[in-house]
Amino acid sequence: MHKDFFTHIITHKPELFQAILRFNASCASRAAVPMPAIVQSLPHENAVLLGQALQENSITAQRFSLQQAAVFFWDFTEESRRLAFVEPESMQQAIQMFGAAIHAEQIAQIIGKDDVLTLRAHIAPQILSYALQRGRYQLGAVARLFQSLDTALPVHQRIALHGRLAVQLCLAPWPEPLRSMCSTWIHQVLGTNSDSAATSDPLFLDKENPGHLVDNARTIWFGFKKILLKEVAPQWAPCFE
Description:
This protein is an all-alpha fold. It has 15 helices and no strands. It has helices at residues 3-12, 14-26, 37-40, 44-55, 58-63, 88-102, 104-108, 113-122, 125-132, 141-144, 155-171, 176-181, 183-190, 211-215, 217-232. The protein starts with a helix and ends in a 9-residue tail after the last helix. 30% of the residues are buried. The model is unreliable at 29-33 and 64-69 (pLDDT under 50).
């Protein structure tokens, strides 16, 4: 994390800076979002902007204190970490749309009545409509990365499975402090049970041979980001590059 990062986003990307503040404030129980030293050392004009940002949200302002130590996370220079700001519902919709876009060609080939009814029972009409229109043209080479996986499963199961797998790949490199802070969010997004003691790490890639996906994780991230920001949650676009 660099001083230049905070200087840049305060000046040029205030939406991202506000999102970082809200994220840390939401993790505070009563008080205590200690400002990192790197922010405290900003030039005076940027410090003024920081104070104004805090005053705009009274709840956040009440929670900011330097008297209580707590664990918070400030290093959002890596873009994929900013997914933590996005509502779980939006993430879940993006997962469905990403999975549908991956398998759009297979969806287009389903013509049997029973198969069509099964697909419609599991996949929302707007998701299917998206896949057969824009979705089938948006991912290109990214879709081909998943084509050889789980071919014995019905298409609707592959849509759900591969959408979640894509997000697992995007979140797996997150540092442990961020993963810990977002554990409930991660379980919500991936649809796993956070209350079960037997639940394994939801970011554990348990595929037998995901090596080629791991090698192309960055490409998969860009594909998922496109779906999220263009089709599901364009309001979050200012927080991404």
